[in-house]
Amino acid sequence: MPVGTQGTIKGLTTNQLEEIGCQIVLGNTYHLALRPTSELIDELGGLHKFMNWPRALLTDSGGFQMVSLLHLADITEEGVTFQSPVDGKPMLLTPEESIQIQNRIGADIIMALDDVVKTTITGPRIEEAMYRTLRWIDRCIAAHKRPSEQNLFGIVQGGLDPVLRDKCVRGLVHRNLPGYAIGGLAGGEDKDSFWRVVAQCTAALPEDKPRYVMGVGYPLDIVVCSALGADMYDCVYPTRTARFGTALIPEGVLKLKHTAMADDVRPIDPTCNCMVCKNYTRAYIHCLVTKDAMGSQLLSYHNLYYMMKLGRDLHTSIIQGCFPEFVCGFLQKMFPKGDVPEWVCNAMEVAGIDISSCCAPFSSS
Amino acid sequence: MLLDCPSLKAISKIGGLHQMLGLHGYSFAAVPRDSLLCLPNCDGTNKIGASFETPCGRMLIKSAEYMKMISSLKPNIWASLADEVPAWTSEKRNRTSVDRTVQWLDDCIALDPADGGAVFGAIVGGSSVGERSRCAQEVSRRNVSGYWIGGFGLGESMDERPALLNAVTDVLPEEKPRQICGIGLPEEVLQGVAAGIDLFDSTYIYHLTLGGFALTFQMDRSKEHVPSYQLSKIGSDNAKINLRATIYRKDTSPIVDGCSCYTCQNHTRAYINHLLNVHEMLAQILLEIHNTHHYLGFFRLIREAIKEGKFELFCQKFIQTRRGHLVEAAVCA
Hints:
The complex is a heterodimer.
Chain A: H1 14-20, E1 24-27, H2 29-34, H3 38-43, H4 47-51, E2 56-59, H5 63-69, E3 74-75, E4 80-83, E5 90-93, H6 95-105, E6 109-111, H7 124-143, E7 151-156, H8 162-174, E8 179-182, H9 191-204, E9 211-213, H10 219-227, E10 232-233, H11 237-243, E11 246-249, E12 252-255, H12 275-279, H13 282-291, H14 293-319, H15 323-334, H16 342-351
Parallel strand pairs in A: 1-2, 2-6, 6-7, 7-8, 8-9, 9-10
Antiparallel strand pairs in A: 3-4, 4-5, 11-12
Chain B: H1 8-14, H2 17-21, E1 29-30, E2 39-40, E3 50-54, E4 57-61, H3 63-73, E5 77-79, H4 91-111, E6 118-123, H5 129-140, E7 146-149, H6 161-169, E8 178-181, H7 186-195, E9 199-201, H8 204-210, E10 213-215, H9 229-232, E11 240-242, H10 262-266, H11 269-277, H12 281-307, H13 311-332
Parallel strand pairs in B: 1-5, 5-6, 6-7, 7-8, 8-9
Antiparallel strand pairs in B: 2-3, 3-4, 10-11
GO cellular component, one term (chain B): cytoplasm
Family (chain B): Belongs to the queuine tRNA-ribosyltransferase family. QTRT2 subfamily.
Keywords (chain B): Cytoplasm, Metal-binding, tRNA processing, Zinc
């Protein structure tokens, strides 16, 4: 899911998003509530109409942005207290308020307000946050005015503690929600801890409901999480890295600002069929990324195309029964020397995917 | 193109402008002056070459270097190197600019590669009717495919322009196209067309878009447009609206009703207003699409009016609608 923070994916038209094969876009409740406000969006018929996006939308609860963007945000049992960025007044975002705002914006999937804690934090705060998330999901469910039009997803919290995670999963599953997100990750924890939490959650969540790993991420992370049973992802990475002049390719990344690109007349990725790779050279894009907004626009287009294709390919390979082969092919291109990171190997083992053909044997140390 | 990025070597490797930009169905005209990033600097220009102010500093371009660029870019049309001077230069400097420009035309033609595309001879002469005429006569004697009229949009007033334009076009053969640089406002375009200009390049649309403006002037020749004083208070008028203004926050109409551009077919004024407020790139993209479309529509109307022999009537009506708005604004003020 590309992130269309303020009601747009930076620099791309909805037409282009459809071209790329994008099915669903994420909008940030915090930003939209600020400008142009959820009331205005509601008055004008909802976010789909406002942006003219005929496909699906998902909004987050607004809580994460507040905690990460605002200086004096604080979490209490009532909700998230913060200073209004407009006039400095103390404000409170409750689970009820978050759901109401999301009801007005009108996305197809809405997220519960959770008490999200960074995985790098330890101690009783994590337990407190997990239990509070469960109490808040009940308040969210009660406040939800459009359950037949908007799907409310719960978010599993619990830090890196398997006991807490387990309790949270059980609690949410008990509420029988349309879908579940695995939250609190993608915040700086080490990869080894990261995949274990994902694996534990996906094993315990119902098989017939979508599992959404929030804030993920890098193509490699998406492949691993998919092997572990996750379905949905959101991340600013493809579009943000485009704005820094970096393109996503099967081998990893290509830095278009590098001087070597100035004379390179190949497309970004000769195997890619997107509009950008079909029409433009690295040399031309190299010029643009340093001087013109169109550079980042073209790279965003290509990067999103790459991500959409990755999702489609993962999906197709599962249906066709050749998922392990696809994963091996992916890893071989990214790690031609066979130096697949250990965490990936461990995760794939737990997922039951044999990738021995693309891993060089570990040197004994 | 003078900014050296991509390098000429890279452009040649790619195969020229059409390949590089992926715009194969279009024609390209290469001119030395780009009114945004490459401005003629008449104080720096000397007999060796033309000087330009660019983001990379001042650059002096000789005819030989210029022709190397042309052969790399492979445009369909290219203008010869010119010494453009602003309206207030001295007589002597003005005369020198004409002599130089003609000399450089000869240099460029001599260096022209066989498949170099059509050359448009550059004509300068500042705000002297005499020099304009002299330059035009000299250039028309050379073997060129058309004419590139430079030195406008550099300080002359709209009132003195027709005489200067006519001094040039009266002398030029009728069957060869004339292109002008630096003339962009609709009224100025009409002036140019009246004097016999065929092609225009300007930064008008670019600056409109940057400012958050959208063109709205009446395109349907049958409808009467009623100007609004309220609009002018927020920088909008008969020709354009300022989409940053708060009155558009909830306006769910397209920029122009019935406009067939992508922006008007898909988006509302309210959405663009929001995009401008949150500084999203998409705002400029959508505005540029509409403004370009609208502006090109204006040129189409001009061509139709000429074909029907009603060009002067078209001009009068157009200017009248604009004046009507100003009159009402003056009355209400």
